[in-house]
Amino acid sequence: MLLCTFTLWESKFARTPIMPLNIWKAPSFLPLVIVVLLSFMSFGTLLWYMVAWQQDLRNWSVLQFAVGWTPFAIFGTIGACLAAWLIPRLAAQWILAIGAATVLISNMLLATMPEQQSYWAQVFPATILMGFCPDFVFTAAQIIASNSVRRHQQGIAASLIGTLNLYGNSLGLGFAGTVETETSKQMLNPVEGYRAALYFGVGIGAVALLLDVFFIRLARDEREGWTEADDNQQVDDRDSQAAARGIAHRMTRPIEQ
User: Fold this and answer.
1) pLDDT digits over 69-124, tens only?
2) Choosing a second label site near 250 at 20 to 30 A (CA), which of 6, 48, 72, 103?
3) Are 237 and 150 in contact (CB under 8 A)?
């Protein structure tokens, strides 16, 4: 109900909409939002069940997990630098695809591992790979969003992409928790519940990767700063909006007798 009310207000009554609905018509923007949401849903599922598996099933302490998760911090930092380096060298949709692929593979590694196993066999490579996901996805998504919409809508698009990080983690974990609970009830085995939740992460990660490959397109970004044409376009947009408001005001003004 609240969402419908917000949409109605933004489309019919708001003079300066917080979320202009025409932003969803921008090329690649809607599939981009879905890809980012699914990628962070998969990442949140992976993070939670990695902790749960190591602590609940393998009896790791908090300190052991902190040490075991050190590669994430190291390779996450490398991933942030690498994503920035790749921006002028590789089309942003492929940077996004790499990020989606890393979380997909990481989920698959955990979903297929036995209950008891050495940390180095599957958890360690999964921890390394998942370190690349957030920065690759977030950086590429910001580039695609900024280049898909008009200049005056870029702040809105960037804010929406940033919000998807938190919503994706929470939403993914909610669905994964439901999958885990129902599977554990039927199989009477918590391991199978964890495994089913991780396979859910694999599934949504695969959907994100496919949507990115087939529906998101953006040329390699080699631009430095804004061109004069960009500024002129923004001025033209403001003039057109002002003219439209003036015409609407004259049409609605009472005729003087």
Assistant:
1) 999 999 999 999 999 999 999 999 999 999 999 999 999 999 999 999 999 999 99
2) 6
3) yes
CA distance 117 to 121: 7
CB 106 within 8 A of CB 126: yes
Q: What region, left, alpha or beta, does residue 188 occupy, with left being phi > 0 and alpha being psi -120 to 50 degrees? A: left
Q: Cα–Cα distance between 175 and 156 in angstroms, integer?
A: 27
pTM of the predicted model as reported, rounded to 2 decimal places: 0.83
Give the whole-angstrom CA distance, residue 111 versus residue 216: 28
Interval 209-222: pLDDT, tens: 999 999 998 755 55
For residues 195 and 57, the answer to whether their CB atoms sit within 8 Å is no
Query: Could you please report the per-residue DSSP string of 175-188?
Result: HHHHHHHHHHHHHS
CA separation for the pair 153, 148 (Å, rounded): 10
In the chain, the amino acid numbered 103 is V
Q: How far apart are CA 238 and CA 257, in angstroms?
A: 34
- The two three-digit tokens of residue 131, written as one number: 């370190």
pLDDT tens by residue, 4-42: 887 888 777 788 877 778 888 888 899 999 999 999 999
Sign of CA dihedral 61, 68, 126, 80: positive
